[in-house]
Here is the input.
Amino acid sequence: MGYRNKTYVIFDGDNDMWAYAYMKGWNQNKKIDFNFNDAHDLNTITNASSEANTKRKLRERFSTAKQAVVLIGESTKNLYRFVRWEIEVCQTLGLPVVAVNLNKMRRYDADLCPPILRDADAVHVSFNARIIKHALDDFCTSYSKYQGKGDNWHYKEQVYKDLGL
Here is the structure.
């Protein structure tokens, strides 16, 4: 297995591409303290690709991932063909998952979160560069403390305050 240093981002490509674009923008903006090596930069997938070909290329991206971000929007929980499959791959690989609520909720959102992430040792945060960066730096690097506990992790309000949020 190769060196894993990338972040794999899972999202609803039809409705939540804007949030992924924000993350890429934060990553490129030198005035924002947010950086991640995007696993999706590895190869190109077109809409015309078959499901089997798409999943093969996504597996290649997973081979470089050390962590994952799931962008949770209005319809994310209903997406099984790719979103649920991608989350299952994360769980199989033991990747730490940062579940990001696009509605700004700071903890597990039972109404919108994909059921597969319930009690799945993911940390749930709001959509903001500072808290996402904090989760990637803090939760993901110390994931072994959380893994296997079967909980919906979140940060206390003081963490958000300390980050200026």
